[in-house]
Amino acid sequence: MRPTLIAIGALLCLACRSVPDRPEPDAAAVHPPEPAASNPHEALDHLDQRRPVPLLPMMAQHQKQSMREHLEAVQAVVAAAAVGDFEQVAAASRRMGFSESTGRMCEHMGAAAPGFTERALGFHHAADEIAIAADRRDGPAVLTALSSTLSACTSCHAEYKQQPVAALPEAG
Question: How far, rounded to the nearest angstrom, does the alpha carbon of residue 100 sit from its chain's CA centroid?
Answer without folding.
Answer: 23
